Amino acid sequence: MKRTIKKVAVVGSGIMGSGIACHFANIGVEVLLLDIVPNALTETEEKKGLTLDSKVVRNRLVNDHLANALKSNPSPIYSQKFASRITTGNTTDDMAKIAQCDWIIEVVVERLDIKKLVFEQIDKYRKPGTLVTSNTSGIPIKFMSEGRSDDFQAHFCGTHFFNPARYLKLFEIIPGPKTSSEVLDFLFDYGSKFLGKTSVVAKDTPAFIGNRIGIFGIQSLFHLVKEMDLTIEEVDKLTGPVIGRPKSATFRTVDVVGLDTLVHVANGIYENCPNDEAHDLFKLPDFINKMMENKWLGSKTGQGFYKKEGKEILSLDLNTLEYRAAKKASFGTLELTKTIDKPIDRFKILVKGKDKAGEFYRKNFSAMFAYVSNRVPEITDDFYKIDDAMKAGFGWENGPFEIWDVIGVQKGIELMEAEGLKPAAWVGEMIASGNNSFYTVKEGSTYYYNSQTKSQSKVPGQDSFIILNNIRESKKVWSNSGAVIHDLGDGILNLEFQSKMNTIGGDVLVGINKAIDLAEKQYNGLVIGNQGANFSVGANIGMIFMMAVEQEYDELNMAIKMFQDTMMRCRYSSIPVIVAPHGMTLGGGCEMTMHADKVVAAAETYIGLVEFGVGVIPGGG
After folding, report:
1. Cβ(228)–Cβ(291) under 8 Å?
2. Buried b (16+ CB within 10 A) or exposed e, 34-62
3. Fewer CB within a 10 Å sphere, N or C end of the chain?
4. Which strand ranges, in their side-by-side order, compose the sheet holding 312-317?
């Protein structure tokens, strides 16, 4: 059957529920957001003479939660005017309205008894065929739909959004015992095409995929930090952007998410996974228990691993549990990777380090490699889903199997053996069968080693996309140090920037002109797009600054004229020029977008002329 989503009900309006409601409003869907009726009046309500029967009181919780979400930073909504797509109500007076909805998402407190009561209510009012999903982060899906109607159970599963729902891309789909395959296929496609997510189908195991692996990684570091006598600053230095992870790295991330949230999931895994070979790692170290007692939960309580005092950021000493001035962290091994732009190219050097950093990476990666290999087939039959989940849910640039591949499968096994660990048996079978890597690229598509069929299988979902990483060499038409031109087929070229942070300097301008020359003579059109973290941070301001300092005004004028002429070529060339911006699209990147024949922008595009901030007038147009 053809299924369309015009209206969604979100039951539970806390941080997660309001965030999910806002994201559906972002994509143009009407939302009904419900929460419970308060059981007591506030002082202000009493002074106004209101009663528990007053509508404003009955909808107070849902309206307050939504208002707080809309004021939060970063914002959960693309534009404040989109909030008009959200209607609020309460679960006592307005539950019957869910009959008008195409999808009902439960986001109430993480207690099975309460969830089951909510589903009983939903089953009473929903129309047959309506999707019902739970945003639980760990309660088994199979228990939730017990006792519900057959139609409910066929249309029920888990859909786990990660917080904040607008920004984190992981969308885990967890089937229940009777979920129909049509429902799973629909949700997978809807997540990818409409919600802008990386959809991952997970098994109904504790913490599913993302949190099972992510919490293992964090817990593993909690134990390693004490074993190696590292400071929290050192761990955050080693586990941040240098290895393609967010700036918040490990301890700052825990502060942002909340230590109590992490402890809740870790305890759940410890209690529900008694046969996990790393079971003891999920036991909380003493310093975490002490922080929980002290209510040092992170940003929400004003202090966690870090604490702000005035303008100074203090760090927690894990040995004394006292706050102290932050210490600078530096390692010789990291210095060796400074000239390497892409994190994926750094791992081989990092694991060979002769200092504490090298030892840390060998221990850390060997533990992770062993753990993820042993989760196949427990949490998923296909290991690539683990990589997808870690990249989309935790902001890793590369998943654990991708990192293992680049270090070398055999080298990864040697690292494990040095730590007294070993990979799962299927990894040995893979090597024995002549497959020396987890992934291979053939004819522009990524294949993975399928441990069930014992052969290479194509990663699904690629046929509707052109993945530049997979065609970079095979379809290359021309390149210089700043740009590369690919033939996408169907008479279309693609120009990809390859400069640092995709800045627009001389080489990139030469590349744009070359691409337009080629397209005008032999092709039908040009796309300017890339798969970098950002489209472009703009012109190379450093170069312009140096020309000004050296008073090389003739060269400066020539550079600006070349920039302007190139933008005009984008606008007036005889072939269509399509620009596909995403992420930071600043300065020259913005001007190029303004001069394109058509713009296909990602929703998360941060675009503008920022040169004024450094005292430069935008000159590209």
Report:
1. no
2. bbbbbeebeeebeeeebeeeeeebbbbbb
3. N
4. 306-309, 312-317, 322-325
- What confidence tens digit (pLDDT) does each residue in 18-30 have? 999 999 999 999 9
User: Residue 427 has which token pair?
Assistant: 């990894």
pTM: 0.94
Query: Is 277 within the bounds of a domain?
Result: yes
The last residue of a domain, from among 310, 329, 348? 329
Beta strands in 318-424 (DSSP E): 322-325
Q: Which amino acid is at 184?
A: L
Determine the residue type at 317. D
Read off the tokens for 495: 């120009």
3-state DSSP: the chain helix, strand, coil percent, rounded to 5? Answer: 45, 15, 40
Residue closest to 497 by CA, chosen among 507, 482, 509: 482
10-residue mean pLDDT series, the chain (621 residues): 94 97 98 97 95 96 98 95 98 98 97 96 97 93 96 98 95 98 97 96 97 97 95 97 96 94 94 96 96 95 94 95 94 95 95 97 98 98 98 96 98 97 97 96 93 94 86 91 96 96 93 98 97 91 82 88 95 97 96 96 94 82 80
For residue 128, the SS3 value is coil
Which domain range does residue 582 map to? 473-614
What DSSP letter does each residue of 477-513 carry, written as one string? EEE-SSEEEEEEETTEEEEEE-SGGG-B-HHHHHHHH
Query: Residues 307, 316: contact at Cβ < 8 Å?
Result: yes
DSSP H helices, 239-285, are 251-257, 259-272
At 448, list the tokens.
């993975």
187 shares a domain with 282: no
Please identify, among 151, 177, 201, the residue that sits at the C-terminal boundary of a domain. Answer: 201
Residue 373 domain flag: no
pLDDT, tens digit (0-9, with 9 covering 90-100), for 159-189: 999 999 999 999 999 999 999 999 999 999 9
